[in-house]
Amino acid sequence: AGYEAHISIKVQEHLKPSVSGYILEHAALEKADFLVIGAKGHSLLDRLLLGSVTEKILSLNDNMTTLVVK
After folding, report:
1. Global pTM?
2. Residue 15 pLDDT
3. Which of 7, 26, 42, 67 sits at a 20 to 30 Å CA gap from 58?
């Protein structure tokens, strides 16, 4: 018995202030069941001043499996 998977990858550029909200909204509209996001190493000061899209997605996302890659 084998497994089949349909994988769709989309790369989009979006310049609105709430990138994390846009990503989650788009994933919901596409009925995605798995989200892969990248983590870029920032200093603590950068995270405090700028925030992190990955951290915001993880804090807002409670219903979709998410893989963070570095």
Report:
1. 0.63
2. 65
3. 7
**Tell me, what DSSP letter sits at residue 30?**
T
CA distances from 17 to 8, 14, 53, 58 (A): 25, 9, 11, 17
Per-residue pLDDT tens for 12-45? 776 666 788 888 888 888 888 889 888 776 677 6
Q: What percent of the chain has pLDDT over 70?
A: 77
Amino acid at 14: H
Query: 29 near 64, Cβ under 8 Å?
Result: no
User: Using CA atoms, how far apart are residues 35 and 20, in angstroms rounded to an integer?
Assistant: 12
Question: What residues form DSSP beta bridges with 55?
Answer: none
Where would I find the beta strands (DSSP E) of the chain? 34-38, 65-69
CA pair distance 61, 24, nearest whole angstrom: 7
* Amino acid sitting at position 48: L
